[in-house]
Amino acid sequence: MSHFSKINAVISDEEALKAATTNMGFPLIQNGSCRYYYGTKQADMVIKLPGKYDVALTKQDGSYSVSADLYGQHVEKYVGRDCGLLMQKYAAEKVRIEAFKRSLAVTEATLDNDIILTLTDIDTGGQINVACHIGGKIDLKTTGFPGETCMKFQDLESALGYREEFVPTMEMYQEKPVDGTEQIYNVTE
Length: 189
Description:
Layout: E1 3-9, H1 14-24, E2 28-36, E3 39-47, E4 55-60, E5 63-68, H2 74-79, H3 84-101, E6 105-111, E7 114-120, E8 127-132, E9 137-143, H4 154-160, E10 161-168, E11 174-175, E12 183-184
Antiparallel strand pairs: 1-9, 1-10, 2-3, 3-4, 4-5, 6-7, 7-8, 8-9, 11-12
Helix pairs in contact: 1-3
């Protein structure tokens, strides 16, 4: 079985957040002071940016909300509009961490401003293609998994954020008999 999923990334993993900010060249400070136009504010995590303003992350119910002073587009210059570049980098790091936990091989490419990660299950040869978009939207497609084995990766999807959409593909209705040939079953009969 194979499927498509659309996921909204949610910042919940400090290791992935630290890896993302480090790769972007910004320090991540725990229990830091975030700079705003009107002063400073204490936050659970602070991304220190060059110049006048920073990004604050506040933990609530197991995930972090992001806030920043958007005056003059200073923050936008470093982490993207509405922190979209930060969310994309976080999502890619979270995918890498979750793939490592599941012993999946990872290859990476960049295409049209998207980070494309291909995760390969060594046992089945099946692949999970993940596109991390600016803004934290994630498109995930599984292919090449026999039967319903792709469903074992639902916990990976949950670890990335909130699944907005799940669509099975036609591969779901194909089975491979013992002789290796494919049979297609018509599910409308």
